[in-house]
Amino acid sequence: MSELESIFNRIVKEYSERLYWHVRRMVGCHEDADDLLQEIFLKIWTALPSFRGEAQLYTWVWRIATNETLNHLRKERVRAALRFASADDLGARKIEGDPYFNGTAAQRELWKSVARLPQKQRQVFVMRWWDELSYEEISAITGTSVGALKASYHIAQEKIKLNLSDSEVSK
Question: What's the whole-model pTM score?
């Protein structure tokens, strides 16, 4: 086995589960996350020879996963617009219909609320809340300032609180 294969195998072993959940929380459903994870690892394998070690391996892998996921979400948004549908509602519907979702009703409402966030706020919320990354780590991955990330996270939290309280009122 070459050194490159060895490094790639280590990345797959070490990051598969965390990357899956990072992507799943961004896209909302198992099938999309599973497909994206395959694309992400293909992209990592292709880019691995050019990895220069200027960033931490973790940050580099997360940046690839995040960019691939955001590209997927952008394409979904375009497809939804062509069908005259809301991509945010589509994301919430995917969560509602996901047979692999095994959380409580409250967790499902939280996921649906996160799916309705604009992409940047969703990205920051997922990385900070669920992935438990520091603002500095998120900044290294996204290239966004810590101050802007804190503001996006705060706004995302407020929107989620509002969405959750609205969903409680409508029940």
Answer: 0.66
